[in-house]
Write a structure and sequence with these properties.
11% of the residues lie in helices and 35% in strands. It is mainly beta and 576 residues long.
Amino acid sequence: MRLLPVVFFTCCALLLALHCAEAAKARHFKWEVGNMFWSPDCEEKVLIGINGQFPGPTIRAKAGDTIVVELKNGLHTEGVVIHWHGIRQIGTPWADGTAAISQCAINPEETFTYRFVVDKPGTYFYHGHYGMQRAAGLYGSLIVDVADGEEEPFKYDGELNLLLSDWYHESIYNQMVGLSASPMRWIGEPQSLLINGRGQFNCSLAAAHTPGTKQCTAGGNKHCAPVILPVQPNKTYRLRISSTTSLASLNLAIGNHKLTVVEADGNYVEPLVVDDMDIYSGDSYSVLLTADQDPSSNYWISIGVRGRNPKTAPALALLNYRSNRGFKLPAVAPPVTPLWNDTAHSKNFTYRIRALAGTPAPPATSDRRIELLNTQNKIDGHIKWSINNVSLVLPATPYLGSLKLGLKTALTAARPADTFGRAYDVTRPPSNPNTTTGDNVYVLHHNTTVDVVLQNANALAHNVSEVHPWHLHGHDFWVLGYGEGAYKGDAADAARLNLVNPPLRNTAVIFPYGWTALRFVADNPGVWAFHCHIEPHLHMGMGVIFAEAIDRVGKVPREAVSCGATATALMNGDHL
C-alpha cells in the first residue's frame, strides 16, 4: 500500500509532462527581408523591411513553444542575420543571429532557417545584427505569453504594445563610412523618434502648445499616421514597451496617468509606480496603466530624448478613451521630458527596480571578476571605442564554428585583460589616446559564476562621458549595483551591491563617470556577444565576446557556419 502514493504521483507527473508536450507548439513563419520605399516620418526613404512590412511582423508565442523562421535574404548586395533579443537560445547557440559570432551572414537570395525555443514569458523583440541594419529598420516585436495553465503575477484587462525607435534620413551606408572616416563624421542626432514605426518630421501633433511649430495633419500617409492606443474607461492595460533605438535613450510619460512597472527584460519585478520612465536601447518593460482619468478626454503619450542634448522633437501618440474620436487632441500640453542631463532623475528610476519575490537569487560569491573599462580612443587618426584599450574587430569565420572545430586561427595568442590599471583617471580624457584592435574573446569555464564590472570614463573630449546600455546574449544577469567614479573593488564598493533582490536583466546601463556590477552563471554553452547596444558604438568597437564551454555545444548545423576557414575545414572532412 505504501507504493500507491508513489505510483499515483508518478502517473500525475507523466500526465503533466504529456500535457505540456501537447500544449507547446511549433510556430512557423516564412519571411523575406528586402529593401523598400517607406515614409516612417512622412519623408520617403529606403529601409529594410520583412514581407513588405515595417516594422517587421510581430511574433506571438507561448513559453515552451518552438519558433521556426525560414528567412530568405532578398537584399541585393549584402548579407543579413536576425538576432532574437532576450531569447537565451538554450541549446541552440547557432540561432542567436549574430554575424561572425554565432553564424555566417545569409547571402543574397539564400535562405536560412532559425529554430529555437522561447523558454520563458516576457516582452522581447528581434532585429538585424549585421553592420548597422537595425538602424535601417530591420526589427519587430516578439511577445511570449505564459504557458497554458500558468498565470502572470498581476492582472489586467487588455494589452497594448509600443515598439520605440529612432530614425535617420541619412542611409546606414553613409553613416558607416562617416564613422570609419578620418576625421570621423559623426552620425548626429536622429531626425525623428518612431512609435510602432511611425513618427512625424518637421511638425508636431501638439503645435498648439509649441509656438512656431507646424501642425501635423491627422490623416494622409498611413506610413506615418499618428499612433492611437484605444482604452475603455476604468480598465487596466498591460503596456509592453521595447526600445530598438540606434542611438537615443528615451523617456516615456502618459499625461495624467501613473505607470506601474511589473516586468523588465522578460523578468518580473516588484511593482514600481512612476510618473515617467527612462528606456535605453535594448530595454524592454511591461507597465500597468489604469484608464482612471476623465473619459471625455484623450491623453498624450510622450517619448523624449534623454542622455544627449536633444535635437530631435519628442514623439507623440494618443491614449484614446473610447467614445472619443481617435484623433481628438488633448486640450493640455504633452508631458515635459526631464532635462537630458538630469542623471539623478534617471538613477532614481533605475536604482529602484528590484526582482519580484521568488526570483532566483544570485550566487553569494563569484569565481571570476572581469572589469571592462569603456574608453574612446584613436587608431591612426580613426576614432574608436575600446574595452580595456582593445577595440573589437569581428572575424571572417564565425567563432562558434572555428572554436567548435578547434581551428588554430580562431583566437589570437594574447587573451584580453580581466582588469584595467587602478591608476586610470576616469574623469579625464585618456593621457595616451592610442589603442589597438583585437578579438576581445573571454573564455569562460562551464557553470562558473562570473562578475562583470562595466566602468565608464571620460571620452576624448573634456567633460564628456556618455550613457552606454550593455546587452548580453545567451543569458540574463543580476544587476548587483551601481557606483560613482572609479570602481576600486574595496569594502565600500562591495557594500553597494545588492545580493538580496537584484533584478534579472539582459541589458544594463552605465551612467556617465560611473560603474555597474553584474553577475551571471556561465551555464549556456555557446559564443555570446556582450556589447553596447548603441549601434554606432558597437560599429566602432565597443564590445567583447564570451566563449563558453564550447566542448559542450551540440551538433552545429553546417549551414550556420559554412563560411571562411570553417567552410574549408568542413570540405577537408572535419566534423562539427
